[in-house]
């Protein structure tokens, strides 16, 4: 399952659309949702009496997908380190043990000769150390087929499978750009393994971003979505597939009326390449990004929601070569504004590597434009190792009497080569290291913890506690109420605004 915030898998809805053409393999059979095949039996827009005729036509093209997985786990010997250690051997104690696991999801046929679309996470090992051994596709008539994985793309969460059969019922992708908020939609899938389940709802929102990823621009729906619906189709009332169910927002793991589907127009070019066995390449700036919150926007002098902060510039990548710096706010890329609905990741990833594009940014309150040539985005697995979550606070708060070295409720010490090795900082890094944070301070509330490295305050380098104290005092005397810190943890950094105590 793929989660958003506290999410399990899900889907969403769309509106009336026209059919798009994928590069389908040869097959003479007519699609179940061929133009004109659904309209006559579809419920009237605005006041549907029944979806039964439409569902009867479409349901045969929706499939259940299951996997078997092999998981290797390391068994612990309960007698390890004792005179009885030998009794734990030979029963799995202290050695690797192989176990079996299964997963369930949904998908749909897009050709008469057995090409199936689903989510990548449906056919991916669910835990570390697991290997997917088999993938089984079960049709609506309960016939089962072993499937081959033709192609997958983790960034968009799409995958294409192939089963060996002919004359199969299938559906075509529609045009999700025609969907409107409020349109009726129908989702078909296999929640909790219950194949052929149908739910209906409306399009709740369009262009919804959940985690700011490269292909994070979903259709949101209130259709009932649960575990196992992932990978299933989202239909409009003309029977067009306008979305591929992907995620749900849920604090409990069950449906709460907020589901997300990958728009068909976003999926189409990716599926075209995956069906040909080609890999997906995306543009890459080579920066670590940070959202522009209200307090950060005020500190950087830009409108809230209009741009993304550059928290780190990767050496040797496109951004560094173009002169982009840490602390710049990128507001426009390739002549398109950076907004919450049109994120920087999305804009850059959708431009082919090697393309030369203009990037507009704000530096020290002034706008300027640089031109650069995009690199190639690394695999998601590699990028995941670079993620840094400042909210992951594992701090060990100190006694309040030791706090306040810089009047922010934190104690700091200059960075030394020995400390740099301990906290994983770059050998050339400079700054002050947090020794602890008062649990009642805004600094602790913002996630500052022991071992964090502060390199700048109000974008001015700091080397000692006195440097930090001086900047805080200057800010306070000029009427400022907060200090903008740049904080690094395990080599990754981001900006944080910390309130100055009264």
Q: What does this entry look like structurally?
A:
This protein has 502 residues and is mainly beta. The protein folds into 3 domains: 1-280, Thrombin, subunit H, CATH 2.40.10; 283-384, PDZ domain (Pdz3 Domain); 400-499, Pdz3 Domain (Roll). The chain is built from 9 helices and 27 strands. The strands form 5 sheets. The protein has a 7-stranded antiparallel β-sheet, with helices on one face. Strands 8-9-10-13-12-11 form a 6-stranded antiparallel barrel. Strands 15, 16, 17, 18, 19 and 20 form a 6-stranded antiparallel β-sheet that branches. β17 and β18 (336-337) form a beta hairpin. It is elongated. InterPro entries: PDZ, PDZ_sf, Pept_S1C_Do, Peptidase_S1_PA, Peptidase_S1C.
Features:
502 residues, mainly beta, Thrombin, subunit H, Pdz3 Domain, 3 domains, seven-stranded antiparallel β-sheet, protease, EC 3.4.21.107, hydrolase activity, serine protease
Briefly characterize the structure:
The chain is mainly beta. The protein contains nine helices and 27 strands.
- In percent, how much strand structure appears in the residues? 25-35%
N-end to C-end Cα span: 46 Å
Shape: elongated
Tell me about the biggest sheet? 7 strands, antiparallel
Number of domains: 3
* CATH fold annotation of the largest domain: Thrombin, subunit H
Instruction: Let me know the average pLDDT.
Output: 81
CATH architecture assignment of the largest domain: Beta Barrel
Proportion of residues in helical segments: 10-25%
**Helix run count:** 9
CATH top level assignment of the largest domain: Mainly Beta
What is the number of E strands?
27
Structural class: mainly beta
Low-confidence stretches: 3-19, 385-406
Family: Belongs to the peptidase S1C family.
Pfam families: PDZ_2 (PF13180), Trypsin_2 (PF13365)
EC number: 3.4.21.107
Keywords: Hydrolase, Protease, Repeat, Serine protease, Signal
């Amino acid at each position: 399952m793929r989660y958003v915030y506290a999410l399990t898998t899900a889907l969403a809805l769309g509106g009336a659309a026209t059919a798009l053409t994928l590069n389908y393999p040869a097959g003479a059979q007519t699609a179940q949702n061929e133009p004109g095949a659904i309209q006559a039996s579809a419920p009237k827009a605005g006041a549907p009496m029944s979806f039964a005729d439409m569902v009867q036509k479409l349901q045969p093209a929706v499939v259940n997908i299951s996997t078997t997985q092999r998981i290797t786990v390391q068994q612990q010997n309960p007698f390890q380190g004792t005179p009885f250690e030998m009794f734990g051997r030979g029963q799995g104690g202290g050695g690797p043990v192989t176990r079996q696991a299964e997963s369930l999801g949904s998908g749909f046929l897009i050709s008469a000769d057995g090409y199936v679309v689903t989510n990548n996470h449906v056919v991916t090992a669910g835990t570390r150390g697991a290997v997917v051994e088999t993938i089984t596709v079960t049709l609506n008539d309960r016939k089962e087929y072993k499937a081959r994985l033709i192609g997958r793309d983790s960034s968009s969460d799409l995958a294409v499978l192939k089963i060996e059969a002919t004359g199969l019922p299938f559906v075509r992708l529609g045009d999700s750009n025609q969907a409107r908020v409020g349109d009726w939609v129908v989702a078909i899938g296999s929640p909790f393994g219950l194949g052929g389940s149908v739910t209906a709802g409306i399009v709740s929102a369009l262009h919804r971003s959940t985690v700011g990823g490269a292909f994070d621009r979903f259709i949101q729906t209130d259709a009932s979505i649960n575990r196992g619906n992932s990978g299933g189709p989202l239909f409009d009332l003309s029977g067009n597939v306008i979305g591929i169910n992907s995620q749900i927002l849920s604090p409990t793991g069950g449906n709460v009326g907020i589901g997300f589907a990958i728009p068909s127009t976003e999926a189409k070019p990716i599926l075209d390449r995956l069906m040909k066995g080609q890999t997906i390449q995306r543009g890459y700036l080579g920066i670590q990004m940070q959202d522009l919150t209200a307090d950060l926007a005020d500190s950087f002098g830009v409108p809230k929601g209009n741009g993304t902060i550059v928290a780190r510039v990767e050496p040797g990548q496109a951004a560094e070569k173009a002169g982009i710096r840490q602390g710049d706010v990128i507001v426009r890329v390739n002549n398109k504004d950076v907004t919450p609905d049109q994120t920087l990741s999305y804009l850059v990833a959708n431009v082919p590597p090697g393309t030369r594009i203009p990037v507009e940014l704000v530096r020290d309150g002034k706008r300027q434009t640089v031109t650069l040539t995009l690199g190639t985005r690394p695999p998601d697995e590699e990028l995941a190792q670079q993620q840094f979550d400042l909210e992951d606070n594992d701090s060990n708060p100190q006694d309040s009497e030791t706090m306040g070295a810089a009047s922010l409720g934190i104690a700091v010490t200059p960075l030394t080569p020995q400390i740099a090795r301990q906290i994983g900082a770059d050998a050339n890094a400079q700054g002050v290291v947090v020794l602890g944070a008062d649990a009642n301070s805004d600094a602790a509330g913002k996630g500052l913890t022991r071992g964090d490295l502060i390199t700048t305050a109000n974008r001015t380098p700091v080397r000692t506690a006195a440097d930090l104290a001086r900047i805080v005092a200057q800010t306070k005397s000029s009427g400022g109420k907060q200090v903008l810190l740049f904080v690094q943890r395990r080599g990754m950094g981001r900006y944080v605004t910390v309130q100055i105590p009264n």
